[in-house]
Design brief:
mainly alpha, 3 helices, globular, CRISPR system Cms protein Csm2, RNA-binding, CRISPR-assoc_prot_Csm2_III-A, antiviral defense
Amino acid sequence: MDGDLQDDTREDIQYLRVKLAYQAGREKNNGPLKALQKRLDTEIQKINTKTEWEKFAKLMETIVAYHKFYGGKD
């Protein structure tokens, strides 16, 4: 294995799932955030190592960059 995650990192990852679910729940009419949250939640549940966590972080950076490039402000 390429490095176990520390307990506090595991807790942060689980808290991320909660925050995503909360934000998606605030959206009306099953908008795009709900679909994104569902997909990201699946990926978050797969994180068990430092390498997987780093890959997920890069994915999130890519999503944010894409969003900003296309005019997103939030």
